[in-house]
Design goal:
The protein contains 14 helices and 10 strands. By secondary structure, it is α/β, with parallel strands linked by helices. It is globular, with a radius of gyration of 21 Å.
């Protein structure tokens, strides 16, 4: 996000400081203690850490990861953090491998503030281990001056094979999201382990990269689409929210074929050194104050119901931006499930897709 990047230096400075004491600082419950947080980069509100430090007397030490897999390697190798913010499928893996500790709900007083639609998802149906941090979907961001809604409705993800848009599309450099798109375009579950279906999806993607001349990108899509550089691209809903807030000519479409309903959530590793402080942080993030700071600054959808309603409602920062409100009523939408054997197959196939793209 531009506004987030602009304040990166200030935020980094804030993270190195302990909370400044006040006359009552000695009464703060976690005075002098440290919380070790492992989160995605550029994924926190401007004042989240400083406010938590001020209220608790604790110091928050933050490390950042670029992928769930990078985070997993450090945690699986025994590196200690108090709170992690992984994605749904990775949480499922961490649970399966007994790397998380169950949450003590008696220490979490703000769970009733959260949207029911993002609670009790398949990877953790009782929220025994995780509390949502952000959530959203994946869809198509498009320039309304170049792409008709009729084409989107008629073609869905197959619009990425429509030669009318040759050389004018972005693909997202993510094996999971690319295969989700291809599998949904073919009418399959994005969680399929059927090798024939996976190979069909591979061929779909090869056809796309060989005939459509897509640019394969990651976060560059955000500013590039905000500037109208391509007709359309695959994008996360939170990034589409920013694009649409910057450029009124941009739209967001979720095909009826279905999409990925994703959630990033807070968890406590089994080897956390300060689980009590970890619970306090998780509970604070659920509050109106912290959720508003997070969501208004980052642009991703808050699990706090009041914050989501306020930001998307009349006068809200994201009023009229459909990307901010995740779809929750389409039976074809799915949550990613973790399957290591399938993950390896998809990783291999996607590397071959990228080779095909480089040779096209």
């Amino acid at each position: 996000m531009k506004k987030l990047l602009a304040s990166c230096a200030a935020m980094a400075m804030a993270l190195t400081l302990t909370a400044c004491g006040s006359s009552g600082s000695g009464d703060r419950e976690f005075e002098g203690q440290e919380l070790h947080l492992y989160n995605w980069g550029e994924y926190m509100g401007e004042n989240l850490i400083a406010n938590f430090e001020e209220q608790t007397g604790a110091k928050v030490v933050v490390d950042y990861f670029d992928s769930n897999e990078q985070m997993y390697i450090k945690v699986a190798n025994g590196e200690s953090y108090d709170v992690l913010v992984p994605s749904d499928y990775m949480i499922e893996r961490l649970i399966q491998e007994d790397l998380l500790q169950p949450l003590d709900k008696s220490k979490l007083s703000n769970l009733d503030l959260l949207n029911d639609d993002v609670m009790g998802l398949e990877y953790d149906p009782e929220n025994e281990y995780s509390i949502p941090y952000f959530w959203g979907t994946v869809g198509i961001v498009y320039d309304k001056n170049k792409v008709s809604e009729e084409d989107l409705q008629a073609e869905g993800y197959n619009i990425f094979l429509d030669t009318k848009y040759k050389g004018d599309i972005y693909l997202y450099d993510s094996e999971r999201d690319s295969f989700m798109m291809a599998l949904k375009a073919l009418g399959y579950s994005m969680n399929t382990s059927d090798e024939n279906e996976l190979n069909e999806a591979y061929n779909w993607l090869v056809q796309c990269v060989e005939t459509m001349e897509p640019e394969i990108v990651t976060d560059e899509i955000i500013d590039n689409m905000a500037q109208g550089r391509k007709a359309l691209g695959l994008i996360y809903s939170g990034d589409a929210t920013y694009v649409m807030s910057e450029n009124e000519d941009m739209g967001f479409y979720m095909p009826e074929d279905g999409t990925n309903l994703w959630s990033d959530a807070m968890v406590i590793p089994k080897n956390a050194e300060n689980p009590d402080l970890a619970h306090a942080f998780i509970d604070y993030v659920c509050t109106y104050e912290a959720s508003m700071d997070n969501s208004s600054f980052v642009g991703y959808t808050s699990p706090n119901q009041e914050v989501m309603d306020e930001l998307s409602g009349p006068g809200g920062d994201f009023e009229g931006i459909n990307a901010y409100i995740p779809r929750s009523d389409n039976e074809n939408d799915e949550v990613f499930k973790y399957d290591e054997a399938t993950r390896k197959i998809i990783a291999d196939l996607f590397s071959r897709v990228k080779v095909a793209a480089s040779n096209a």
